[in-house]
Amino acid sequence: MTGEGTVSGVEICLDQVTKRYPGSQVAAVDEFSMTIPAGQVVVFVGPSGCGKTTTMKMINRLIEPSSGRITIGGRDALSLNPDKLRRGIGYAIQQAGLFPHMTVGENIGLVPGLLGWQQQKVRARVEELLDLVGLDPAQFRNRFPRQLSGGQQQRVGVARALAADPPVLLMDEPFGAVDPITRGNLQDELLRLQSELRKTIVFVTHDFDEAVKLGDRIAVLGPRSSILQYDTPEAVLANPADDTVAGFVGAGASLKQLTLLRVKDVDLDEAVTAPTDEDPAALHVRLTMQNSKYALLLDARRRPVRWVHVRELVGGGALSTLGRPVEATVTQRSTLQDALEAILTEGGHVPVTGQHGEYLGVVRIDTVMDVIRTLREEHEHDHD
Amino acid sequence: MTTTNPRAERIRLFAQPVVVLVGLAAVLGVIASGPLDDIEQRNINVSTILGLTWQHLLLSVAVTAIVVLVGVPLGVVLTRRWARPAAPFVLVLANIGQAAPAIGLLVLFFLVTGATGFWIAALPIALYALLPVLRNTIVGIQQVDPSLVEAGRGIGMSASAVLRRIELPLAVPLILAGLRTSLVLAVGTATLAFFVAGGGLGVLIDTGDKLGRYSVLVTGAVLAMALALLVDWLGALAERYLAPRGLR
């Protein structure tokens, strides 16, 4: 995620943080050490019961560590008053955790209120935040949580976490309880917000795909919150540290990797193109000379319309009736996974179009294969 | 006592006081229109009836005040982590208070204190009516979703702020339901206050019974019933309009 906003987050350091519950032989979290860089999204991912939530809750001391050190932006978190510490850390949880007896506005305005902001300022902030998460303030400010859909509640939950503009955000499976489509939208929304705000976000999930999509870095956690791998999504996908991580990554790691890259990240190839009114015989000559089998026909505004095979050019007839129509195109913003899907539909290559649907080039299946191969090689020696 | 059908509930809210008042007026009208002897005239007249009803109401209000002032804070304390082990014992005590016959409590309290009067009646009746409010306060706070309490702490509210601004408001509907039950118990039991010279409508019932004037007895009984039903109606109104808006 390369954002355009300036970094407003701060670094979080956990140093040998341990949680031992009384009466339990084994520690719930055992000597967890990690540096979370300022302005990045770090996703804790792992099976349920691995201690990822416990680890996260020790950062805002909802769970007190038994030993170890935690610093947030250089300040020792364990020496601060816990309530004051938490007012400076945004907190969003599953099913939003909105207070049902308070309006949307009251829910969002809670933390600024605790910090002693003037009412006027709180009101303005509530409006700003509702706008930010895509809810119309006039329509939603005075509603109660039960009058909102699940997705809207989650948006309000995120707005509440952002209310006092904290440098750090903790998110505990915040999108866990909504349907997949809404979930995807909320994830996109969070990425958009993050590209502007550049907070330090610790995000807990058990959904690896969510981790890949949202994380600048992924921490795959095992039993007692042991760090199995802590790396970029690309690296985790390309080269899982061990079999456990590989199992968690699941099938289709290469395909998941392709969701991380966009068409604009690869070099486009040139196809033989022709206007629909060109003489078929002339095109035949051009194709043979360039040793190509297919030509892409463009309409008057240079938009791809048909594919013509060299064999079809010899029978005669107008060019605009030959070959078969183009069924799929991709844009530069499409992911390589979408491009691959389109390539399989189109048969070997897919046209890439610009903002007005004009032809820019094609992506070939070989290009995609090369990308996968390069990624593998890049991360091959990561843990040697 | 609670109806789930909202339409039936609305009709009941409107109809209950009307039916009670009409019924009361009818009974009192029939009694007042008949020939009344000396004793009846001394008991069934506007100033006596109003005076005793007022006393009865005062008793009920005092009992309710004690119940709220004791039951709600006690219930809150018993849901705090450090006091949770004590909760079963206190609940057993309150259960005994309710299970024991109210008249037994009254007389025992009278025997122990050796005094009579308003407060000697109000205190044991309060013990008798305490349980619904106490239990509903505890249950009301316990049924608050723990993730909401954690969310409150997680965004930086202190434990007391969470209690004041989240737990208690969310428990209000149940506390009000308990209060309504307590109120009805209090109004009903206040008819026994005359045993310890506490006054109230029980005086009419007692007089009517001892002197064989059934009109007097019926007047007292019907008034006490009407009062209980009206108080129940007020409780229903409170449940409906005092609960936090987002929960209704």
Walkthrough of the structure:
- The complex is a heterodimer of chains A (384) and B (248).
- Chain A has helices at residues 52-59, 82-87, 104-114, 119-132, 137-140, 150-162, 180-197, 208-214, 233-238, 243-249, 253-258, 280-289, 336-346, 365-379, and strands at 12-19, 29-36, 41-45, 67-72, 75-76, 89-93, 168-172, 200-205, 217-221, 227-231, 272-275, 294-298, 304-309, 324-325, 330-331, 349-353, 359-364.
- By secondary structure, chain A is of the alpha/beta class.
- Chain A has 2 domains: 12-252, Rossmann fold, CATH 3.40.50.300; 264-371, CBS-domain (Roll).
- In chain A, the strands form 4 sheets. In chain A, strands 6-7-8-3-9-10 form a 6-stranded mixed sheet, with helices on both faces. Chain A has a 4-stranded antiparallel sheet with strand order 2-1-4-5, covered by helices on one side.
- In chain A, helix 3 runs parallel beside helix 6 (150-162).
- The longest helix of chain A is centred in the middle third of the chain and has 18 residues, at 180-197.
- Chain A is elongated.
- The mean pLDDT of chain A is 88.
- Chain B has 248 residues and is mainly alpha-helical.
- Chain B has a single domain, classed as MetI-like fold (Orthogonal Bundle).
- Chain B has 10 helices and no strands.
- Chain B is flat and about 75 Å long.
- The two termini of chain B are 18 Å apart.
- The model of chain B has no long low-confidence stretch (mean pLDDT 89).
- The interface between A and B is medium-sized, with 28 and 20 residues.
